[in-house]
Amino acid sequence: MLEDRRLAVLRAIVEDYVATHEPVGSKALVERHNLGVSPATIRNDMAALEDEGYIAQPHTSAGRVPTDLGYRLFVDRLSGVKPLSSPERRAIQQFLDDAVDLDDVMSRTVRLLAQITRQVALVQYPSLSRSSVRHIELVTLSSTRLIVVVIVDTGRVEQRIIEIGAPVTDATVADLRARLIAAASGKPFSDVPAAVAELDAAFEPDDRPVARAVVSAVLEMVTERGEERVVLGGTAHLARYGESFPLAIQPVLEALEEQVVLLRLLGEASAGGITVRIGHENPVEGLGSTSVITARYGRVDQPVASLGVVGPTHMDYPGTIAAVHAVARYVSRILDETA
Amino acid sequence: MLEDRRLAVLRAIVEDYVATHEPVGSKALVERHNLGVSPATIRNDMAALEDEGYIAQPHTSAGRVPTDLGYRLFVDRLSGVKPLSSPERRAIQQFLDDAVDLDDVMSRTVRLLAQITRQVALVQYPSLSRSSVRHIELVTLSSTRLIVVVIVDTGRVEQRIIEIGAPVTDATVADLRARLIAAASGKPFSDVPAAVAELDAAFEPDDRPVARAVVSAVLEMVTERGEERVVLGGTAHLARYGESFPLAIQPVLEALEEQVVLLRLLGEASAGGITVRIGHENPVEGLGSTSVITARYGRVDQPVASLGVVGPTHMDYPGTIAAVHAVARYVSRILDETA
DNA sequence: CTTGGCACTCCCCGAACCCGAGTGCCAAGT
DNA sequence: ACTTGGCACTCGGGTTCGGGGAGTGCCAAG
């Protein structure tokens, strides 16, 4: 009972602060939410909440502001789900259905997510490690350059240019191509290294260096190296918070330019459902006053990658979570149709 | 003589303003540059320059600030070239030489350009319209999806997924693939449409829809649709201008998220050498207080695309121009080696 | 445990203010 | 015809001061 009201107060504080971006005081609280008690009572609750670390006051004699811990409690126990409207759902589906290839799906997804959450959006390409090779193509670009192209069953296409010391004959290239296809086609990525490892042994000594170069390029492509790719969008939303905020955008923009950082943000998503990292829970320096909400997408039994958004800690959690969740589901569906 | 000094004054104003970001007054001018005259004389010159529209004062009794017109004159007639140091050149070359494929060249270039100019960098992928087809591959992804991959002689790889109504046999796919290769391989893009247009006529009526779908996908890929692609980097530099500036970053970030806008910025580059667009000369709304410096890259006789940077009008023009120029040259060289 | 009252603390805002940098003009000098 | 020093004037920016107000913590009574 008592506990209940305290939590209600915390919820009210979070909601008001998210709406107004200003510290909220006891009087304003009782006016806007109809808790059936007096401001004085609320003040006692607030003092208790502050002791427990859920809220803080920026200055003496100012209102209260939620702490990271406060948001955490709000997200875990207090926030309901705010389902998307059905026009919204239709718009999402329609927009994603129009995509013509994987690149298009990814770029549409990131734009969509940024637009509906009004925040910075992140989308990771389907991971290669759980995919298989559909086809391998090896083509001569010039007398000293080959290009090897791997077509993945998710529709992703990876390529790599190989410099070779000396010219090779078309026959050698054709042979190499045929053997690569025979060895790797249809195989899951994890099996490819073993399948192609000994391939160069079949060639004349003269051609072995080329074979080895090609094989090692393929190996690089199917192992972690090229695996991860993240697209980013909606950075303009960062500038929306009139300078009034401690959210200095420069470090955030800097962090978001590093692929490694993006992968850390998306990668640490916990197994199922939605992951919410609030403020300092965040593994990345410079993003201490942002929250990151991510979801996995792909088959339920076998997620292929993650997507999510980055925004200020004082964001609309229920709405954002719902949006991320919905987009992840629709993307999963689109990609499933491909498989 | 008189004219000479006025221009020297303009140059001094631009240089000081770029360095300090503060309106510059007559007294400070004579102190920092050794023009052999008194502040009063400078004041007369400044009044004249203001009448002619090259400089302006933000408020009465403040120093002067260059106008767009002033920067224009500075760039056209006053700025020397500020060559890069040889360690810088070496670093550029080395960094680009390590690239493993075209995507890598592009992403390295954009990072490089952003880093050395400390501004937002833009790099356009080599245009397809002046390239030729090296190889075409057609692969079955699932019973109702094909993927067609076009390998371009610049090392660029384009792909597209095709939905088909009904399953097709492997034989049909193989046939289609062979005919595509025969018709298009080695041809410049401009010749491809004619070469593949009648391809579907060779097929049984049952297979014609599939053939047509594939052909039209190829046509879309070689014509304007997928042609243009721009990568962007260094947006964090936008936030560097402490709020002191009229450069509201939100509209800039917004503009830079539109591929169309990026293409307009890069596309309108004049034929040869470096293009500099200052402030309102800029074709894009929201970028009125930024300048854009672009250069074409590729073979001298046949440039393939553009790259450049976007920064505040009060940028270091000589340095930035030199950097853009140098990077364009090195990228050209790298790509030439491929051809 | 709740509530009204009350004293206290700061933050924010506006007004008044001064200071200094910078200008424009003018009259004298070269 | 320019250049120069002098001089009055303007105006933006920083500082100080004080009041108003929102909000708090505590206490004593219900």
Q: Largest inter-chain interface?
A: A-B, 37 and 37 residues
Radius of gyration of chain A: 26 Å
What assembly state would you assign to the polypeptide chains in this entry?
A: homodimer
- By CATH reckoning, the class of the largest domain in chain A would read Alpha Beta
Order of helices and strands of chain A: HHHEEHHHEEEEHHHHEHHEEEH
Beta-sheet strand percentage of chain A?
15-25%
Number of strands of chain A: 10
Ordered list of secondary-structure elements with their pairings:
Two copies of one chain form a homodimer.
Chain A: H1 2-20, H2 26-32, H3 39-51, E1 55-56, E2 65-66, H4 68-78, H5 86-97, H6 102-117, E3 120-124, E4 133-142, E5 145-152, E6 157-163, H7 170-184, H8 192-196, H9 208-222, H10 224-227, E7 230-233, H11 249-256, H12 259-267, E8 274-278, E9 290-299, E10 302-312, H13 317-338
Antiparallel strand pairs in A: 1-2, 3-7, 3-10, 4-5, 5-6, 8-9, 9-10
Helix pairs in contact in A: 1-3, 1-4, 2-3, 5-6, 5-13, 6-13
Chain B binds a DNA duplex (30 and 30 nucleotides) through residues 2, 23, 25-28, 37-41, 43-44, 46-47, 57-63.
